[in-house]
Each structure stands twice: as C-alpha cells, then as structure tokens.
Amino acid sequence: MRGGAEADLLVAGVAGRAARPVILSYVITNATAANGAVSFSASGSISAFNDITVTVISVAQGGAVAETMESIKLSAPFSYAAQNRTVTAKDYAAIVPTIYPNVESVTAYGGEEMTPPRFGKVFISVKPRNGDFLSDETKRELIQKLKSYAVAGIVPEFIDLKYLYVELQVNPYYNPSLNDTPELLKTNISNALTQYSRSIDVNKFGGRFKYSKVTTLIDRVDNGITSNNKISSALSEPDVDFERIAA
User: Has this prediction a pTM greater than 0.85?
Assistant: First the structure.
C-alpha cells in the first residue's frame, strides 16, 4: 500500500500526507473458478533448482462469489451479538462461518429443544459451499476450534443436514407472434428457476419457497408469456430426471 506514485510505504495506524492519493494493490480470486483444481506445476526455479515436483494434498476449495448485501444484513447482527464467544446456539451459528469460510449456510439449536432433552449440548448443521456435507475430519477440526470461544460447559456436535427438493412442472402459455422460439423460451425459464434456486430465499436454512415469487419470475422471463400453470411437490429424495430447486 503506497500513498501516491512517489510516496514511501504507508504504516498502519499512521496518518498519511494530506491530499495524497492512496494506491492499494491486492490479489483477488475469480470466485469459484479455481475450485477443484488438482494439477499444479512450478512456474520457476527454487534456489537454482529446476527439477521440482508438486504434490497436491487436497484439491483447491473455498472460492466463492462475494457475499451479497442481503446476506450481510442477515448475518451481521448475529455476529455482533456473539462478541467472539459462544454462549447460546445463535452464537455458535455466528462463529462457525468466521472459523470456516466454506460455509454457505449454518443453523444451530440447543439440546434442550430435543425430545427427550439433551442438556449441555448444542447441535450445529452446516451447508458447505463446496460439496453437500462436512467430512468427519472437518467436523473434528471445527469442534477443536470452537473450544477457544467457549465460556461455559457446552458440548458442540455437528450433524448432517437433510436436503428437501421442490419438483416443478411448468406449463407456460405464450403468444407465438411475440416469441416464435419455444426451445429458447424453455431454456430461459429453466435458467431463471436455477438462478432462483441459488438465492438466499430458498438455499439457506430458514429459507422459504414462495409460489407467488416463482410465478412472477416466470412471467418476467419473456414478454410473450401470457400465463403459466405449475404443479409443485416437495421431495426428500433427489431424482436426477427432474429439474429441482433445493430448499
């Protein structure tokens, strides 16, 4: 970080010169593009050694698009309330994303809410950005990290989430004089529904599938659509032959 083209390196906490531009240089990632990368090669020599072998322990992961304003508004109050300590179930839900960035959504509840009650425990379920479930190794690592935030004798336990799918059968009516390419219309509707499935509305814990919103979404895909009829049903087991929205 430098203050202007000819300025010296700025020191954190020390005011720079007045009316001087501040130039920041930083590295950014291309969202999820690098996730899954497993083949790497050396781009140069190391201390004059050119025969370099790169061994990959695990594939690249953790890349994600920037958090949306909507998501920040939802999570920020809980993060502030937690104050870097875990007392309530909401505190655990707020702390986990800070120690494990691969979290897309998280929920937690106290054992006293179970039947029969399991006092002194908090149960946490995480939907990772990459993959469907947390590995046993990741769960153990998170439990160890959470110990540094504990201020009471509460035992955290990670449980796997259950996916619920909404199967949609869409029957739009359209005006051929306004749109004479039904296959393209079909593709655009499918893309719009896929985009909705990735939104915070349905793809987070506590999300809700809104029939009225889907209806409006389809109507706005193309001016040629005059109306649409849909049949939707909730499924607990996925079926690859149908298009779904995960909730």
Answer: no
